[in-house]
Write a structure and sequence with these properties.
Blueprint lengths: L10 E4 L2 H12 L2 E7 L5 E8 L2 E7 L16 E5 L3 H10 L3 E8 L4 E7 L5 E7 L5 H15 L1
Helix pairs in contact: 1-2
Length: 148
């Protein structure tokens, strides 16, 4: 990892780091920082930067990181972007699944949710209106009333 790496870096276990890096470059504008492979060609570590945030990747391997995991990822990453609609469209074109379409939300964000082709969940988000905590609480209360 680069010397100026953040204290906490998520590491994504994927079926193919090379494919994942291409996806994240095409969809999120990621930049590859480094990649190390073992003699068999498996990526044991790669690092990318997405808008200044560093994400690490590794190929799934039965001895280190098995690919089998429960249905659905327990981790949800939020990517703040200028145009979540365009990013969601690019993601879908590159094999992601739209789970929640991008729309304006009552808490002042324009956002949606995708599952990338490697099973990881992403919120694509942009602030459209600065909201006070009180405004958000009122919105949460109203949202809850609509769900009942």
């Amino acid at each position: 990892m680069p010397d100026d790496s953040p204290i906490l870096t998520p590491r994504l276990v994927v079926s193919s780091s090379a494919d994942a890096i291409r996806f994240y470059e095409a969809v999120f504008g990621a930049k590859e920082l480094e990649r190390y492979t073992n003699p068999e060609g498996l990526v044991v570590h790669a690092a990318i930067s997405i808008r200044g945030a560093i994400v690490s990747l590794t190929d799934a391997h039965e001895d280190w990181y098995p690919a089998e995991r429960p249905e659905g990822s327990p981790v949800l990453m939020t990517l703040t972007c200028d145009d979540p609609d365009a990013v969601a469209q690019r993601a879908e074109e590159h094999g992601a699944t739209i789970l929640i379409p991008v729309a304006d939300r009552f808490y002042g964000q324009r956002e949606g949710r995708i599952r990338d082709p490697f099973g990881h969940l992403w919120i694509l988000s942009r602030t459209i209106k600065k909201m006070s905590p009180e405004d958000i609480r009122r919105g949460v209360d109203q949202f809850g009333k609509h769900k009942q």
